[in-house]
Amino acid sequence: MSAPFEERSGVVPCGTPWGRWYQTLEEVFIEVRVPPGTRAKDVRCSLGSRHISLAVCGQELLQGKLFDSTVTDEGTWTLEDRQLIRIVLMKTNRDAGNCWTSLLENEYAADPWVQDQMQRKLTLERFQRENPGFDFSGAEISGNYSKGGPDFSSLEN
């Protein structure tokens, strides 16, 4: 079985003061650097449909209203190597046109170049799903790819 599209094509990360975030068609990934030796009992993480809060050792690292809605019951967080918290959120709207421009409504926005690269990647991921026999991981996209690119679903075979 082949690796998922995002593993073959790489990610387009958006750097933040505490780590980075990136997205696929279905998920938003948040990676937060924490002091080495951090234990799970030091972490307080709350994941809601439109809200996130993360505190480590009583210090708030991340809190606010998410850019778009997520599936509350499918959000998870893990502590890796006692120095990295990885949060995975499942997008409610899993359309290629739903490219988050920022993690929170008014914070951690992707700069224009990163936003462009994120949108290109989501459009290629959409094409991969629509055409599973082709490998788009090394493809370049140009032209009208904003909002997920052109919609060919109404074309007859």
Give the CATH class: Mainly Beta
Tell me the number of structural domains.
Answer: 1
Oligomer: single chain
How can the largest sheet be summarized? Answer: 5 strands, antiparallel
Residue fraction in strands: 25-35%
Percentage of helical residues?
10-25%
Low-confidence stretches: none
What structural class is derived from the secondary structure elements? alpha+beta
General description of the model:
- This protein is an alpha+beta fold and 157 residues long.
- It has a single domain, classed as Immunoglobulin-like.
- The protein is 15% helix and 32% strand.
- It starts with a helix and ends in a 27-residue tail after the last helix.
- The mean pLDDT is 87.
